[in-house]
Amino acid sequence: MSVQPVLVNGEWRTSDAIGEFETINPTTKTALPETYPVSSAAEAEAAILAGHEAAVALRTISPDQIARFLETYADAIEARSDALIDLAYAETALPKSPRLRNVELPRTTDQLRQAAAAARERSWCLATIDTARNIRSMYGPLGGPVVVFGPNNFPFAFGSASGGDFAAAIAAGNPVIAKANTGHPGTTRLFAEAAFEAIQATGMPKALVQLLYRVKPDVGYRLVSHPLVGATGFTGSRSAGLRLKEAADKAGKPIYLEMSSINPIFVLPGALEERPDAVAAELYASCSLGVGQFCTKPGFVVLLHNEKSEAFFDKVKEHFQNPPGVLLGKGGVWTIAEAVKKLQAAGAQLITGGREVEGTSYRYANTLLRVSGDDFLKRPNELQIEAFGVVSLVVFAQDVAQMCEIAASLEGNLTGCLYSHTGGDDDALYDQVAPILRAKVGRLLNDKMPTGVAVSPAMNHGGPYPATGHPGFTAVGVPASLLRFGALHCYDAVRHHRLPPELQDKNPTGTMWRWIDGGWTQKDIE
User: Fold this and answer.
1) Does residue 295 have an active-site annotation?
2) Least crowded by CB within 10 Å, which of 47, 103, 239, 302?
3) Whether residues 367 and 428 fall in one domain
4) What is the pLDDT of residues 185-212, one digit of tens each?
5) Choosing from 258, 287, 386, 502, which is the catalytic residue?
6) Model pLDDT for residues 320-334, shown as the tens digit of each residue
7) For residues 151 and 332, is the Cβ–Cβ distance under 8 A?
């Protein structure tokens, strides 16, 4: 088997590996031909030093050149689409079509181009000018590389060398050190090859994008806490994220985490009176999308206990008895099994599923559990476990007051949804539950399952802890996503010709929005 090279300081080089690993095809449970290195502390240090040099070089690179890199990179991805899709399918079992080809790949190139537009237009910098005091400020680069840890479930759109964190960091003027997810290292390598091609084509600093495949935990902690690192973006498990956060916090380094979320769905009585079959079908479709391996999967459903809700639950159970899909890998089977075991130990009743499906692929039976509102409120923390698969827990509240109490006991989530009667029959109940739920989630939905995350400027893909490490930021949605990787630069009485173009009297683009003397404007300062 061939050991793949790492990309460090503009060179595809043989790694000084302290170990190796291989990837397993989840559909066949067989090893793929390539192996990948586990990078040493010295190799990570070399990447950080090169990234710092690239950050210094970027100070003289124009926003237009950064935008051209992102656009050229998007073109290069599209030119490699077949190879990317084939390898991603082999590494993750995600369907080639429509998932990879028709959904995730165009989403990836679209967000790169949106980031390019934001980098060129400049309004994301939030330039603020006080002419009376001659104080001016704006967001600019961090001054060091951004380390991106990508997740296993979105090899394109959230990938460490291609996804939203990557696009935002580059658009904000920072180099990226991509730490590939070990579930799809080959796919990440193909992206890094395309990025390096775009670097060369657009004359960007050679270490603008670097790639490491795997590091030991102590090296990971060093990556996020290094004095020369600007910030870190992480998407993954709560346990890994919190360990990295501890290391980054001790060093005073920003780290933006997307961790765990159960995405509660409150189905109000009027919705069950009006359209129970449709809601049951939507719930299952959302739960099973991507074999339940979405951070926005609805894993927690709250109903008022009555005959209608019991009949609805039976409909949901029928859907959950469908055959399961192929998981991303062996680890998925184990983590789902552990989560289901913990839910049962906390008092949840297993209704269907709850077992690994034997065969040539990694599968776990679709799993539905239930618990009374009384029992949930006895152990709310233990019953809010994210199970990363087609698993959902239904909680039956005994009355409206208990439904509100359940909402109040929730941890922070990415999303929360209320299904209600279209004619307004549930409005009084909605008005009681929604304000409580609003404080618990980053994105509140009505009559719509949460799995879709549109790449829209208005999107919030974030939320209170433990969904993320900070409720004030989003991982999706340009230009807001760029602010995570910006530093606020203030200029006090600096001579006009020494100011960055964004803060000079003349609007540098003609379209950039700036906050000047108390109002947003695109005008020049007279």
Assistant:
1) yes
2) 239
3) yes
4) 999 999 999 999 999 999 999 999 999 9
5) 258
6) 999 999 999 999 999
7) no
